[in-house]
């Protein structure tokens, strides 16, 4: 599966799941119908260190309070086992915004800046997948 079709698949899967659990008034669309998805994978410097992972989770829970975030999910690698699955990361951070502008507010928000300042020493690598597109029902 190429990167673009993988992104489309992930985005559509998440939207489909959200549409069954969120009221219509909370669906993630702007006036133009586009939404912004921000997915971050954190790779810890001290792989397998549960104290470092707990500290990162503490920081992400603080980060979730940025007001422009409409939905957030914090996760760890699943136990699934297929050749296409990346499981080397420690924590994933998935959040949805109404639009690109709201995500840009998030990037500059004091809570986000403080998160990077306080917790960036924990990770050796971060991979980010950002996508935009209309909500599909």
UniProtKB/TrEMBL annotation:
Please give the start and end residues of each transmembrane region: none
Question: In which organism is this protein found?
Answer: Spirosoma utsteinense
Domain Stress-response A/B barrel, residue spans: 36-131
Q: What is this protein called?
A: Stress-response A/B barrel domain-containing protein
**Source taxon at top rank:** Bacteria
The record's listing under InterPro entries reads: Dabb, Dimeric_a/b-barrel, TAT_signal
């Amino acid at each position: 599966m190429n990167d673009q079709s993988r992104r489309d698949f992930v985005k559509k899967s998440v939207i489909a799941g959200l549409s069954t659990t969120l009221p219509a008034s909370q669906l993630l669309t702007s006036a133009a119908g586009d939404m912004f998805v921000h997915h971050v994978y954190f790779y810890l410097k001290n792989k397998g260190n549960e104290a470092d992972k707990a500290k990162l989770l503490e920081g992400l829970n603080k980060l979730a309070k940025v007001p422009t975030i409409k939905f957030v999910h914090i996760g760890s690698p699943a136990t699934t086992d297929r050749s296409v699955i990346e499981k080397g990361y420690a924590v994933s951070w998935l959040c949805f915004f109404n639009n690109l502008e709201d995500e840009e507010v998030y990037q500059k928000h004091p809570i986000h800046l403080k998160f990077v300042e306080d917790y960036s020493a924990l990770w050796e690598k971060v991979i980010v997948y950002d996508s935009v597109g209309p909500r599909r029902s």
